[in-house]
TrEMBL record:
Record's keyword terms, sorted: Leucine-rich repeat, Repeat
Protein name, as recorded: Protein phosphatase 1 regulatory subunit 42
Family annotation (PANTHER family): LEUCINE-RICH REPEAT AND IQ DOMAIN-CONTAINING PROTEIN 1-RELATED, LEUCINE-RICH REPEAT-CONTAINING PROTEIN 9
Repeat as UniProt keyword: yes
Entries under Pfam families matching the protein: LRR_8 (PF13855)
Record bears the keyword Repeat: yes
Organism: Eleutherodactylus coqui (Puerto Rican coqui)
């Protein structure tokens, strides 16, 4: 068990203090990037003393709760892939957050993002969802992200439709690999609502086997430039 505290930051990053007369508190106040990925961290202390922190790497740990991160009001990038997070909570203070990585956790509902008005990228692929269930989205979160979100990765989350995401009107890139999408009419609904979508990856979905699937999608889309719908096979000679 490892707890991320300011003392741990002090022991780990002591070599980064390049000003001889600088106290560690002063260093914490000016640091902008911290990398504690793959450190067996399972608990987070209040790190609000890091008042200028913009990028925080915490992927590949054992973190279950993220409520302590809500005080890092200057964060723009937050990497939390491959942890044990089952609930998005207490992130409303991250007003400047632009990119949020939560892939490979235990989320079943995407919620609690209502105040992240600057969020441009949301990566929530490969959630460990109970058998027979699919990833759900809180309408309030979708409505709040409708103007800002442009990149969404929802791969491998047992999704069988996209129409619930139609409000995300500024989506430019969608990655929805290895889901259960089958209905071309479902695609018709969202493509009509996403005028800026230029890249879409639906590799591994049953819909890709629909007759003339590619032609139909191109006709339905207003700006699509890249449509990925199959795995590239390596050829060996």
């Amino acid at each position: 068990m490892v707890r991320l505290t300011v003392d741990l930051i002090a022991r780990t990053n002591n070599h980064l203090r390049n000003r001889k007369d600088e106290t560690f508190t002063q260093y914490l106040k000016r640091v902008t990037h911290l990398n504690f990925s793959n450190k067996h961290i399972d608990c987070l202390d209040d790190l609000s003393v890091c008042r200028n922190l913009t990028v925080l790497y915490l992927y590949d740990n054992d973190i279950r709760e993220i409520r302590s991160l809500g005080f890092l009001t200057t964060l723009t990038h937050l990497y939390l892939q491959n942890n044990c997070i089952s609930c998005i909570e207490s992130l409303s203070g991250l007003k400047r957050l632009e990119k949020l990585y939560l892939g490979g956790n235990y989320l079943t509902v995407i919620e609690g993002l209502e105040h992240l008005e600057e969020l441009r990228e949301l990566h929530i692929e490969n959630q460990k969802i109970p058998p027979g269930e699919k990833l759900l989205f809180d309408p309030r979160t979708l409505h709040s992200l409708s103007k800002s979100l442009s990149v969404l990765n929802i791969s491998n989350n047992n999704l069988d439709e996209l129409k619930g995401l139609a409000d995300l009107e500024n989506i430019t890139q969608l990655v929805a690999v290895d889901n259960h999408l089958t209905d071309i009419k479902d695609l018709e609904i969202v493509l009509g609502k996403w005028p800026r979508l230029w890249r879409m990856d639906l590799t591994g979905n049953p819909i890709c086997h629909t007759p003339k699937y590619r032609d139909k999608v191109i006709v339905l889309s207003k700006a699509l430039g890249t449509l990925i719908h199959f795995y590239h096979k390596k050829v060996f000679y």
